[in-house]
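Researcher: Here's the sequence for the chain we discussed earlier.
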Amino acid sequence: MKKFIIALGVLLASFSLADAQKVAYVNTETILASIPAYEAAQVALETLADKYKAAVETELGKVEALYQNYQNTRHSMTAQQRQSAENEIIAKERVAQEKQKIYFGEDGIMAKKAEELIDPIRKDVEKAIEYVARSEGYDLVIDVAALQGVVYKNESLDLSRKVVDRYFENR
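Model: Thanks. This is the structure I predict for it:
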């Protein structure tokens, strides 16, 4: 809600100064969806995520199987055997958590792969937006994909198609 209020304030301020500055908008979701390389990168990331998710789920399945076995047999174990089984379960659980962190953590494989595949495309889109804005004399370009609560937008101010065209001109 706080972001919405801030964004609305920026929009209102920018429109109240409309005489002083030229304003337009883009929709980066629409722009990115029209770029085949971006769609291919998304598919590649989803495929990789599914692979890593399956690996983590396999490890968690092993933990669950160990735990179920422990639950079924603990009454017949000595205290030392119970402790050993519990330690094994905890160790396997840590392995699963570590794999999850390696794959999906902030600096994990998926984050690095996303950065490798998607960041160059986003940077090129940003350059295209900047080029179109500068060449057409816009002082402010707002990304409506990043704003929640946009209730009206004048289609004549949408630069998205021009940005896509510019993006592909540089290919």
